[in-house]
Amino acid sequence: MTHSTRSHGAAEKASAMARAGRFLALPLVAASLLFGDVSVAMAQRGAPESFAPLAEKTLPAVVNISTSQTIQSKPGGRTPIPMPEFPPGSPFEEFFRDFYERQQNQGQPRRAQSLGSGFIIDATGYIVTNNHVIDGADEITVIFQDADQTELKATLVGSDKETDLALLKVETKKKLTALKWGNSDDLKVGDWVVAIGNPFGLGGTVTAGIISARARDIGAGRFDDFLQTDAAINQGNSGGPLVNLQGDIVGINTAIFSRTGDSVGIGFAIPANMARTVVEQLRKGGKVRRGWLGVQIQSVTPDIAESMGLPDDKGALVGTVNDASPAAAAGLKPGDVILTFDGKEVANNRALPRMVAETAVGKKVPVVISRKGSRQTVTVTLAELPEDIVNPSAATEEEAPKDSKAGQVDVEGLGLTVAAISADLRKQYGLADGTKGVVITRVAPNSTAQARQLRPGDVVLEVSQQPVAGTGDVQSLIGKAKEAGQKAVLLLVERKGDQQFLALPLDAAK
Fold first, then answer.
1. Which residues does the annotation mark as catalytic?
2. CA angle 43, 47, 53 (to 5 degrees)
């Protein structure tokens, strides 16, 4: 079992975090074994002879963060065993006394402590850390790396669980050292970086490495865009800065990937450009306001790109447009492929939510789309992301109900059987009144349709981006796709109110 963990230093949370991951670890090979003497090449790229000047410059701005919270223990539910009597001085007396005291304390509240890292971004006392470092804390203490190990109580200005960021404030008359934000977009794979933090509660620790990957999606949230580094990051490094060779913040150390919960050379940091936007909003209003477009999107697979006549599989395919949303007001429709947003290319469906969220509420944004093969531009005025917007849960596989074969048509080449929506089928599959299209009543075993997770009860609304009113429309549109030499046909399918495009190869098993 491999593990991806937050690099939090709490002893009580460490074991749980170490069990949270699901990524495949790869063996590390020393660079010198792969490339021989790389020191000359590194020197030519400007690698420093020593990181000591950088450490001396940045360490004073990095702090340790200690939190405490009250945890209500759950009673054991059993009658305590009475303390047995032993002869004075018996070696069993002390053992059973400890056991008895633990029983007596069951159900009593206890204090839990944890450790993390943070860094000063403003000499007036503003400090950035991870949300998971301070989440649920009753008390937050900031420990400075000065000669006196000064400790100050901190107040929480605001936090954002979506990006795992928090902003703290301390009051002090001491002159504080602050770090500057860098531009994380300028980072390239192979660039030197330094991680600073409080691993295992040991205090200020500096580790060096390189950016080993960019734009990592580790399943932490919908805005994942992590920097990956081989600079050693461990539990307790959470919230500490990742800096470049100029000492500017390029990331916030947040998570590690490990079998054991300790560093194996794969750590993840929130990019500084994303963090800076969030922190600025927290400082101004204590919360984050994100842009909202109002669409449900999916990836453009190679099959979908081919069936839609797109030159490549870039962009985000619109499956559903929310009513009374900015997208609806701008005229976006299901089947549109969003190619650029506010002048920036949309590489895939994961990129678009981040781009929209980082755009100011109320801004008018040009959006380039592909609609039925033609490019056009629409202007969208973004609204604020509603707090009650949640990701729909994935539907579970269910066995198809038995029903009559009357009125059903086998769709040649797709491995599907469809039927016009009748009152009986509407009741059988729980379809809403007014549902249009045709309903799938059978999916052939071992077919591509089954591999695409189509199931009885799904409703086909469109074929090749043309609406279907009956089974004849389905057969006719598929026949035209074959005559046109298409390798796949695009279906718009609705399931329990959610719509999704699926591309099915035309040679799918029946």
1. 132, 164, 238
2. 130
